[in-house]
Recover the amino acids of this structure.
């Protein structure tokens, strides 16, 4: 049974690839290049992680449309990256409108063509930044839509194995499974040394701190978390 | 109230634009260029129709991914275009895997950014070629998914005003509304003179015949329909 995994090259999608590899006969990986700030670094991480798991079937999608649409600090350099506020309920500026919907729709088309039975996505609800398209209710609704919008003989499940993990559990599970965290990239702000201050860095560093583990990546600033 | 219309440049989406224009304060149009056989001709039709309805907010999306994914005669020239068989229940070779899902997901992101309340899509279920992503059950399921995958304050409806029309009704309604059918393009096979034989031409010509009307476009072959 073949599975497709959405692999950005970050820590969450890398653990998701590890789980998909353990649960599937073959894994194919899809990466979305939407020419955001840190795309080159993420693409390297994607290929490094694919190499590690010997994933040969790779699809790199030019998702320039995400930048055309705009509306996010991740794709529009005129919108500042907000400093992390892990206690706020406001959707942060890095939210890309309906990104997971777009990515899953494209992955669905590919999965249908290559006869994959599952699409793995490393979304995290519990500990997330408040993105609406990272919630179980959304994925369940999307799975129903894809069942109805594909051929009668096509049956694709959406798998979200990280959905209720905290970042610290992701770190622990990654270490248990030997996932190559040193090959991953999470920072939204820079490509050489992680900034340590954006939402994504803050969540990652807090996860490592709570797992009592050391992040192998270098950081410009390393805030202290409990 | 602003609406987004998916406008390929064909007859169905042009009537949909006419209806959206009548029902909205402002219309924005999105066109997907997936570099298929007849893209240049369709893009001209898109712009000609936008000009007619004075739609200035236009988004042309490079949806090269549709071609990368393949699996359809519409985007893969190695897959032959099947001759029309309007009586078969088999999904035809021109089916592009989950195309409407992908297009609607992208349109949702744009609609969220520009604060549009509706997305109009000219899908036809009753008289369609058997595409699974042209059915009301799919659009209803997708609307639920988009409600859950966008910001809490975002409320976008999917409008399918043509969904239960026969092609002959589309022709009649277009003529009633004065929609510029002479600016549209439907043929999947050629860009200069419509082939008259592909699924899309066959459906169009049969629609005109059943409406007792004359298609203003030239055809290489004009089969007789009752």
């Amino acid at each position: 049974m073949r599975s497709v995994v959405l692999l950005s090259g970050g820590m969450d999608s890398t653990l998701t690839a590890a789980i998909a590899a353990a649960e599937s006969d073959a894994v194919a990986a899809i990466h979305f290049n939407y020419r955001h700030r840190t795309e080159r670094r993420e693409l390297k991480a994607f290929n490094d992680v694919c190499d590690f798991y010997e994933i040969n079937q790779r699809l790199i999608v030019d998702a320039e449309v995400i930048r055309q649409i705009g509306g996010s600090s991740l794709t529009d350099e005129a919108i500042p990256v907000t400093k992390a506020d892990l206690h706020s309920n406001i959707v942060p500026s890095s939210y890309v409108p309906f990104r997971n919907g777009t990515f899953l729709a494209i992955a669905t088309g590919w999965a249908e063509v290559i006869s994959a039975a599952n699409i793995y996505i490393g979304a995290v609800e519990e500990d997330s930044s408040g993105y609406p398209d990272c919630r179980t209710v959304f994925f369940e609704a999307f799975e129903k839509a894809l069942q109805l919008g594909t051929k009668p003989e096509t049956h694709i499940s959406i798998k979200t194995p990280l959905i209720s993990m905290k970042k610290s559990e992701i770190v622990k599970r990654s270490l248990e499974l030997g996932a190559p965290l040193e090959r991953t990239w999470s920072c939204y702000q820079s490509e050489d040394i992680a900034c340590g201050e954006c939402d994504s860095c803050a969540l990652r560093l807090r996860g490592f701190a709570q797992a009592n583990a050391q992040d192998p990546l270098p950081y410009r600033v390393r805030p202290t978390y409990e």
The interface with chain A takes residues 59, 61-66, 68-71, 91, 95-102, 104-106, 108-110, 112-113, 132-133, 135, 137-138, 141-142, 144-152 of chain B (CB under 8 Å). DSSP finds seven helices and five strands in chain B. The beta strands of chain B are 2-6, 26-33, 57-62, 118-120, 157-159. Helices of chain B lie at 11-23, 39-52, 64-69, 99-113, 136-149, 167-177, 199-210.
